[in-house]
């Protein structure tokens, strides 16, 4: 009798084990299928070469200072049957630590005395919306504030280019701007001796698919 009970228990355990194993394989197949379907899109921002460049300005003569962000993460969307579809409704985030201006001292100051003064701004996040064949809107979150930025764009062959201008005071960033201007006071002085950091920043973004 005991032997029958033991054999029965062994059969039940073996059945449960094989069932769990089968479920795991099934789950893995579903995951692989989803990944395959997602990567089958003709255009993908994750696979594209994305260049995020900006131009800020200093001195009363408005001298341009260029830079870029070396990393962008696609949070949602970013794929489609056309480039326009891939861009529309894409949600993204950009680590401010990825800023690069070819001057490590300047990079440090921007991170610490500009973004560091803001409210929990380790990331710039947002969403891209295409409104017609040449215009769109970027919803950008910074300093705890989300604002819309109008942009224009072109699509030539496999290259998407967009340009826009941000007025950072709209993100309640006047204090951060003043902080950066103070630490860069001498460097932001022009021939007139006035130190100035402008609030408008030009954006130039290119995605090559």
Q: Topology, please?
A:
Elements (H helix, E strand, L loop, with lengths): L1 H38 L3 E2 L4 E10 L4 E7 L3 E4 L2 E2 L2 H5 L2 E6 L3 E2 L3 H11 L8 E8 L4 E8 L2 E12 L2 E9 L6 H10 L16 E9 L1
Antiparallel strand pairs: 1-5, 2-3, 2-12, 3-7, 4-6, 6-8, 8-9, 9-10, 10-11, 11-12
Can I get a quick summary?
The chain is α+β, with helices and mostly antiparallel strands. It is built from four helices and twelve strands; from the N terminus they run αβββββαββαββββαβ. The strands form two sheets. A ten-stranded antiparallel sheet has the order 4-6-8-9-10-11-12-2-3-7.
General description of the model:
By secondary structure, this protein is of the alpha+beta class. Helices cover 31% and strands 38% of the residues. It contains four helices and twelve strands, in the order αβββββαββαββββαβ. The protein has helices spanning 2-39, 83-87, 104-114, 174-183; strands spanning 43-44, 49-58, 63-69, 73-76, 79-80, 90-95, 99-100, 123-130, 135-142, 145-156, 159-167, 200-208. It has a ten-stranded antiparallel sheet. A two-stranded antiparallel sheet has the order 1-5. A hairpin with a 4-residue loop joins β2 and β3 (63-69). α3 packs antiparallel against α4. The protein starts with a helix and ends with a strand.
Determine the fraction of residues in helical runs and give it as a percent range: 25-40%
| Class computed from helices, strands and strand pairing | alpha+beta
Strand content: 35-45%
**Distance between the amino and carboxyl termini:** 71 Å
Q: Count the helices. How many?
A: 4
Number of E-type strands: 12
Mean pLDDT equals: 87
Strand order of the largest sheet: 4-6-8-9-10-11-12-2-3-7
Rg over alpha carbons: 25 Å
Uncertain ranges: 1-25, 30-36
Largest sheet features? 10 strands, antiparallel
Shape: elongated
Quaternary state, please?
single chain
Order of helices and strands: HEEEEEHEEHEEEEHE
């Amino acid at each position: 009798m005991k032997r029958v009970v033991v054999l029965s228990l062994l059969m039940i355990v073996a059945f449960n084990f094989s069932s769990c194993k089968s479920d795991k394989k099934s789950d893995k197949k579903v995951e692989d299928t989803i990944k395959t379907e997602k990567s089958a899109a003709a255009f993908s921002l994750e696979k594209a070469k994305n260049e995020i460049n900006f131009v800020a300005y200093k001195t009363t003569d408005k001298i341009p200072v260029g830079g870029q962000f070396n990393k962008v993460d696609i949070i949602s969307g970013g794929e489609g049957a056309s480039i326009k579809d891939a861009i529309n409704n894409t949600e993204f985030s950009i680590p401010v630590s990825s800023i690069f201006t070819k001057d490590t001292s300047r990079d440090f100051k921007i991170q610490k005395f500009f973004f560091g003064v803001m409210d929990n701004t380790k990331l710039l996040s947002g969403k891209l919306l295409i409104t017609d064949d040449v215009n769109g809107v970027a919803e950008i979150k910074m300093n705890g504030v989300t604002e819309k930025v109008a942009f224009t764009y072109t699509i030539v062959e496999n290259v998407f280019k967009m340009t826009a201008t941000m007025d950072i005071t709209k993100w309640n960033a006047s204090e951060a701007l003043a902080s950066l201007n103070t630490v860069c006071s001498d460097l932001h002085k022009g021939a007139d001796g006035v130190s100035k950091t402008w609030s408008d920043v030009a954006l130039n973004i290119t995605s090559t698919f």
